[in-house]
Amino acid sequence: MSIAACMAFSGVIASPAAASPLQCVPYAREQSGISIHGNARTWWGKAEGKFQRGQEPEVGAVMAFAPTRAMPLGHVAVVRDILDERHVRIGHANWSSPGRIEENVLAEDVSEDGDWSEVRVWYGPSHALGARHNPLYGFIYNASPAENDDVATEIAASTESGRDDIG
């Protein structure tokens, strides 16, 4: 599907707020299974040592936005689909209007180096990507750092023993 089609598709998918609307933090926690509490701006720091973090989007990961003047509490969203190296679809709450939950909306990496340090996000009222460039801390993955170490150890052991049944 082309990016233009995804942009049009994004506007159609955005859903109105539920009976008891969620803010971005409880929405991201519920949708990702990543149990972090506090304002969105604190998620990146609180994830350190508890969850894997990185700069590449993965389906199910939480996209952690850094606070700005326009978003002093930061923002969090959940990656739903990876379209290409610079476009993903996300689910999030409280972006286009207060309490509104939006699913499968487009987010575009607009960083100079293509490192997902800055994004533009679909903005419902304009039916297009928003003009604002939003800084990201990165992505929080639903796995602990220890789980990553265990997998790396198991892969290394299988390589040394000639086994190739890990995967």
Automatic annotation (TrEMBL):
Pfam families to which the protein is assigned, alphabetical: CHAP (PF05257)
Signal found in the keyword field: yes
UniProt keyword Transferase, yes or no: no
Domain of life: Bacteria
Domain Peptidase C51, residue spans: 1-120
Keyword list, A-Z: Signal
Family annotation (PROSITE patterns): CHAP (PS50911)
Xref: InterPro entries: CHAP_dom (IPR007921), Papain-like_cys_pep_sf (IPR038765)
Endpoints of the signal sequence: 1-19
Record protein name field: CHAP domain-containing protein
Source organism (scientific name): Altericroceibacterium endophyticum
Lineage: Bacteria, Pseudomonadati, Pseudomonadota, Alphaproteobacteria, Sphingomonadales
